[in-house]
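Subject: for your reference before the review

Hello V.,

The reviewers asked for a structural picture of the protein, and I figured it would be easier to keep everything in one thread rather than splitting it across files. Below is the amino acid sequence we used in the manuscript, unchanged from the supplementary table.
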Amino acid sequence: LFARVLRRAQGGRLVLAIFVASIVVTIANMLGQVRLNEWNGQFFDAVGRKDLSAFVHFLWTFLVIIAVLLALTVAQTFLQERLKFRLREWISRHLLAEWLKPMRVYQLSFAGQYGRNPDQRIQEDTRLLGDYSADLGCGIVYSLLQIVAFVGVLWALSAQVTFQVAGYDIAIPGYMVWCALAYALIGSALTWLVGRPLIALNGERYAREAEFRFALVRVNESGESIALHGGEEDEHRHLEAALAAVVDTMRRISTSLAQLTWITSGTGWLSLVVPILVAAPAYFGGALTLGGLIMVAGAFAQVQGAMRWFVDNFSRLAEWRAAIHRVARFREALDNLPAIEEGAEEIKRALHPDGHLAFEGVRILLPDGHIVIED
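And here is what came back from the structure prediction:
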């Protein structure tokens, strides 16, 4: 649905084209990563054999591989950054066009909490949505391609990992793949349990920040009247209350992030040792060479790193979800304005037959139903 809307909207096709180009570059980058992992095994096997000529040959090969990977990484970064601001431009232009339709700027103030602070929705929330959509979208595509590229490699290398039980050699098909999957699932489950409150907290934080900024702008624009009426103390009290709400929300977010860091950092550090541990029996049993061990560890790290994408990006996912929720609700509030206008009562005017000024059954209500003047 999102891709269909992008394709039809002005500027949407350019966003899709950049995204497709980014995927093509990512695929090329992934093929280079697979070649680099193969080089690792060949290079360390040469080191283990003390083969100087092979050692020098693989050093030159390394320079070529790194040059190609560097060019692909630069291209990938360039396209991802272009995607960010093009996506933001598309969303912002769309919201501006809807917001500035006749009477909507005024009517939106009566549309409830999601109609408040349109400046924050169009400026800040669209920036966050564009940045996080590009980063997370490209990131998950990269991780999926990484899994596709390295699972086959890891599965094939798992055949060399055997265990001796009662004098028999036992090989578990795809042993390293299952270990990587189990490790990633455990980390993801713990991350979800610990970090789930961040989703609601980030949404609340954006709302409190918008209210605080709006209060500051209002005071700045009303400086003359505040000075004439001596209202500085009252305004200071209101701003302190708005700031306190922001600080309280940030305090709770900091606590949740600290708790989440136990999981993300802990699993990150353990991942340096886990692949060596799970492949150690085959290496010490003689089934794996040093180069083979390095290849297994590298492929395991790639697969496990891709599978734990959710763990590494949970806090960013929470912020992205909060941003898209706020933009979507703002767009929904704009869509509901015609219904609000149609359901509103209006004062009908007509010429009095005797030329008098008269009122019959007139009452004035706010859009929320609150009566200002009755009869």
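For the response letter, the relevant points are probably these. The first helix runs from residue 2 to 8. The chain has 13 helices and four strands.

Happy to draft the paragraph if you're swamped.

O.
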